[in-house]
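Lecture 7, part 2: worked example. A protein chain together with iron/sulfur cluster.
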Amino acid sequence: MSPFPRPAERAPDNLDRPRHWSADAECKGEVTAVFYPAPGENSAYAKSICWRCPVRVECLTHALEWPENFGVFGGLDEKERRELIADARRLAAKQREKETSGAAS
Ligand code: SF4
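Predicted complex, written out as C-alpha cells:
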C-alpha cells in the first residue's frame, strides 16, 4: 500500500473549514492499490474511475502542484503527468522565445 493517501482518504472536512474538494471524490471506498499499479500493470480501471469523477481537475491540479510522483491522479498516471509538465514547459519556452524575438524586431 502506498504511503500517500488518496484525496478521499484525507482528513474529513470539519465545520470550521470550507468543504474540501476531495469530499466529492469518485474514488471514495475504492481500494487504494488500484490507483498505484505496479510497473507494467494496467491502470485503466483507476483511470475509468477518475474520468467520471466530478473533482478530476482539482485532483490533477493537486497532483501537479504537490507533486504526487506516483499513482493515478486526475485520470493520469505519473508518466502522463510528467509528459504534461514537459509539454507545458516546452510551450512556455516557445512563447518566451516568440516574445523575445518579437521584442527585438
Ligand atoms: S480524479 Fe481520480 S484519484 Fe482524483 S479524486 Fe477523482 S477518482 Fe480520486
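Residues 7-104 form one domain. The chain has three helices and no strands. Keep this in mind for problem set question 3.
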